[in-house]
Amino acid sequence: MCLAVPGKILEISGDDPQLRSAKVSFGGAIKTVNISFLSEAKVGDYVLAHVGFALNIIDEEEANKTMEYLKLMGDVE
Amino acid sequence: MDKKENTTGMMSCPLPISDYDAITMAHGGGGKMMNNLIEKMIMHYLSNNMTSEKHDGAVFNVEGHRLAFTTDSYVVNPVFFPGGNIGELAVYGTVNDLSMCGAKPLYLSLGLILEEGFLIKDLEKIIISIRDACERTGTQIITGDTKVVDKGKGDGIFINTAGIGIVREDINISPSRVEEGDVIIVNGDIGRHGIAIMTTRENLDIESTILSDCAPLNHVVQKLIDAGIGIHCLRDLTRGGLGSSVNEIASQSQYEIEIEEKSIHVLEEVRGVCEILGFDPIYVANEGRFIAIVKKEDAGKTLEILKKEDDGKYASIIGAVKGKNKKGLVTLKNLMGSNRILDMLSGEQLPRIC
Amino acid sequence: MKYLDEYRDSDKAKLLVDAIHKKVTKKWSIMEICGGQTHSIVKYGIDDLISQNINLIHGPGCPVCVTPIEKIDKAIEIASKANVIFCSFGDMLRVPGSNTDLLKLKAVGSDVRIVYSPVDAVQIAKQNPDKEVVFFAVGFETTAPPNAQAVFIAHQQGVMNFSVLVSHVLVPPAIKAILDSKNNLVQGFLAAGHVCTVMGYKEYEEIVSKYKIPIVVTGFEPVDILQGILMCVSQLEEGRHEAENQYSRVVTREGNAKAMEVMYEVFEICERKWRGIGEIKESGFRLKEKYSDYDAELKFGVVNYSVEESGECISGLILQGIKKPVDCPVFGTKCNPEHPFGATMVSTEGACSAYYLYKEKKL
Predict the structure, then answer these.
(1) Which of A46, A52, A65 sits opposite C3 (nearest CB)?
(2) Which residues span the domain enclosing A28?
(3) In the 3-class helix/strand/coil scheme, how is chain B assigned residue by residue?
(4) pTM for this one?
């Protein structure tokens, strides 16, 4: 499990907490995604979406750490 | 043949026709199930020396003239989709099939099956599109038929077009001409049509700017012919996508074909939708794309001609024909640089979560 | 696409492959839990790239594959009813039940619809008040919060013509069952990254401590999987057994509290039978009593079903990592994607399907 795709939040709407949703861009294709599990999500954040729900915000710092680690491996080679 | 004889004939047939009692949507997907239905049932009763060529159209001689003949039916839903409609599709699709045989498309027939309740103004838009598409392709509708079915029996409109073209004596384009060392070239990026259609499905709620790549191919094919390109085979990529078309040619020509994933271009937005739905772009439908299998020495010139076309920016060399292989094998060199088998699409791609 | 392309980069992958080769001093057996990881491994040929050092065992992390046949039969019985609109994720449509599958049922006239999100099924229920709408709620912990949210929304909005057929399975009990098995060959695990976005990885700390085996939470792209493997073999070579996190850009130790809150509001743990494996204690979810009005099994009276599984299909042994698809006598011959015997061939995440699509003709 499971197919989950990273996308960027373009706009947020919805007052009802269960139905709070965001327009998320996946490479330019926009899909409305339920963000009720992410109260702190904001426009510009990247989220991981699965079955129409955002499960988590992508941590850019952590992602950069991975890339840095790989870059260092390459430099050592 | 009377009924009893027919029944006996069916029961003694050694090939299992199908595990299915009824047609499913997968039988129309352009992949293995559709091919099985055609091979094991339809062709079992109807094959002859011309159908066994299995090319997009049939090429034959009539009193010294080489003609090409093809037919196709169009059931796309919605009938008006981003980038086109069923009318122009019905013209381009059949014209393109004739082009894939190396024919100059001349005349088309037009069969319309209209559902009770279909709006006249929508029909008019479609007919105007058909007229415009004929002008663009230099063809004419010279005969036709119109039927109406009860509401609920027709999905708006179904169209069948059959087309006839003329093939120059010196042209022989078919899977049988494929040779080891030939190069495979695609005329642009893939996956647009299938994804444009998917984005119209209300239940998927996807907004995108993707337009179908629906387009005529006869003019560009003529340019390749006029430039003296050693064209061995052409195939337009429709349902089942690039993956299925390459597999068809591999099995019809009985060669191993290797293609390279990184040479195949997919627009970012098309990729985005594919990622969301779990689709592989290599199996997504196209309507204005084809692959040309040409002599190695003509690859550069072919690419140059294709790139000059309006939508040809992403034309690219995607692979080559390897050695003979009875089963017809397609391998894909993936992004990691390792090879995997690229099979034909099984039924149809369904949106997945897993 | 950001956060995808850089994890499919072949140069980075090569660095990791080389690092794995340098690190290992003997051959290790590692299991990737999730079907999505299996798919990626076979699609990108990762197992071939590291085969001399690592034996990758494909785990049971395909909720489609492990849905018991009885559930499919129940789905078919419900979907066959005239006033029912049966909604499902696309994956489930071709999974064979005892006699047929949902796709074939659709072909003969049942109203079976593919939905992308469970909330879409609630929408369909609202739009069709005179019909009963049933949603096939399948998945691991990743999909449980969305499925729970759909039930919660239906409950809040008083949508009474909506119900769910639940077949949820949980990862940690499966890991324990594999480790407790006397045939176990697995020496380290790559845990399912997306499950952990919801659940975190606290619950693996008890497992690593008890069984003294490394577990690395891993993503799905080739670079993620290779890095996860590198982290896992590093632990094995160094004699460590910890719960580590490769997929740190979306997984935290604590997981997503809000998602878990909704999940535990609607679901509770129960026994669950896994197709091909058998019952694993406390490895499933069912609806809580409070939401029993939304339980399709109760609503349609399809509670007591019992089915014998096919003798020839060895998908259970494959799901436990004891056999590989090529060990199966009917693999690629009688059993193939067009005529699947078991769910590991139907689901694109299933080991058999992945092998068939990407490897079969090479044999």
Answers:
(1) A46
(2) 5-76
(3) CCHHHHHHHHHHCCCCCCCCCCCCHHHHCCCHHHHHHHHHHHHHHHCCCCHHHCCCCEEEEECCEEEEEEEEEECCCCCEECCEEHHHHHHHHHHHHHHCCCCEEEEEEEEEEEECCCCHHHHHHHHHHHHHHHHHHCCEEEEEEEEEECCCCCCCEEEEEEEEEECCCCCCCCHHHCCCCCEEEECCCCCHHHHHHHCCCHHHCEECCCCCCCCCCHHHHHHHHHCCCCEEEEEECCCCHHHHHHHHHHHHHCEEEEEEHHHCCCCHHHHHHHHHHCCCHHHCCCCCCEEEEECHHHHHHHHHHHHCCCCCCCCEEEEEEEEECCCCEEEEECCCCCEEECCCCCCCCCCCCC
(4) 0.90
